[in-house]
Amino acid sequence: MDSPDHPIRKPASVYIVHVSMMGGKTLEVQADPQELVAHLRRRIAKVVDKPLTQLVLTLDTCVLHGRQLVGAVAGNSECIHISAFLSETCGPVEEWMDEKHPEGLTEYMPELYGKLKTRECEAKACISSAYMAQQEDINSRMRAILVDWLVEVHMKYRMGTLSLGLCVQLMDRYLQAKQVHRKRLQLVGIVALFIASKFEDLHHSSRISLDDLKYISADQFSKEVLARMEVDMLTTLGFDLCSSTVGHFMNLYKQANRCDDDHGFAVQYLIELAFLDMELASQPPSLIAAAATLLSNQLLQRDLFWPEGMASYTGYSEDALQAVSQKMRELLAGAATSQLNAVYRKFNHPSWGDVAVKLTM
After folding, report:
1. How far apart are CA 185 and CA 43, in angstroms?
2. Which residues neighbour 122 within 8 Å (Cβ) at sequence distance 6 or greater?
3. Torsion angle in degrees (nearest 10) through CA of 281, 286, 289, 294
4. pLDDT, mean of residues 114-135
5. Is there a contact between 42 and 52 (Cβ–Cβ < 8 Å)?
6. Where exactly are the structural domains of the chain?
7. Beta bridge partners of 17
8. Which residues on adjacent β-strands are paired with residue 63?
9. Which of 63, 199, 204, 345 has the largest CB neighbor count within 10 A?
10. 246-358: same fold as 128-236?
């Protein structure tokens, strides 16, 4: 038992935060233990009248990221002494604060991002790289051919970025759970795209219909067969479509990384090449997006490949991303000469900044 002379210290109900600004100015604010660092940053930025998009908070030598709770940072101390400075290179990365977000959404983005990170680890959302070994009539090569074709269909119908990532994820989750004959593999793919389009493509003009599915599959499947597969897929997946996809993390990381349009296209190009690879299908979506962002920084010769702010925000060090980043390098090196070149052709176009040519290795 603890002696009366050494009682267990209870966490403070309110913390006193001492902030030392570059230039010598100091200030003192109060913070609730359950307050997110992202919200604390916002309040400090208002008090000191500094741009939120440049303000970085540090404790000792560590950059504080927005999803941390003030109580977790403080530990048993009732006072926290942090430093604040403005940076052009490493932060901040709480891009939910971006003024471009719809009004009212910024307040909840830290929690939403935390939820995305949590949901990608749930068992029902995880893909095993070995699931294809359990399939009796299809293999990884057939899957890659299907994904390559789905990229073409997705591009032809000008569907949204998020729907492609969700399509591949739904397809893998279904194939992991059900035996599928090779003659029905295309059916699985187009129905996954159909469901993803209805879920992610809010604009009616970019949604595909059952008639479209019949056309792109050369009338191999009737509307009744397509509808039955939709019901079967949704039932198999428990109607759970609100999973974290690589597209969600890609959009966040592109903002955090300060990507311009062409740099953003490069990140997306690397991610879509990764869709073809069975091994990478088993990696968490956030890791795929982070590795693509890191590799794009290297290929485009950023002064700093992986700033501390990006490592803090994503939760991945540069070393932790190297294996996946190297696999992406290999896919990139073979993209131009691969028989499965839909992704290369897509990004070898002015609409996508011709990044496939610019990144040719």
Report:
1. 53
2. 243
3. -120
4. 87
5. yes
6. 15-97, 128-236, 246-358
7. 29, 80
8. 58
9. 63
10. yes
Question: Is the pLDDT at 141 greater than 90, yes or no?
Answer: yes
Q: Which residues contact 209 (CB under 8 A, 6 or more apart)?
A: none
Asked, as a colleague might, if the bond just before 92 is cis with ω within 30 of 0, I would say yes
Separation between Cα atoms, residue 185 and residue 166, nearest integer Å: 17
Please say if the pLDDT value at position 137 is more than 60.
yes
Whose structure tokens read 């006193």?
16
Answer whether 0.90 is exceeded by the pTM. no
Q: What is the pLDDT of residue 102?
A: 47
pLDDT at 290 (0 to 100): 96
Tell me if 271 sits within 8 A of 144, measured CB to CB: no
pLDDT, mean of residues 61-87: 77
- Check pLDDT > 60 for residue 361: no
CATH C-level class of 246-358 = mainly alpha
Per the omega criterion (within 30 degrees of 0), is the bond before 350 cis? no
CB 137 within 8 A of CB 88: no
Question: Contact, 193 vs 163, CB < 8 A?
Answer: yes
For 15-97, the fitting CATH number among 1.25.40.10, 3.10.20.90, 3.40.50.360, 3.40.50.1450 is 3.10.20.90
Which DSSP helix (H) or strand (E) runs through 107?
A: none
CATH architecture assignment, domain 128-236: Orthogonal Bundle (1.10)
Tokens, residue 58: 């540090």
CA-closest candidate to residue 88, choices 257, 267, 282, 315: 257
φ/ψ (deg, to 5) at 335? -65, -40
pLDDT at position 342 is 96
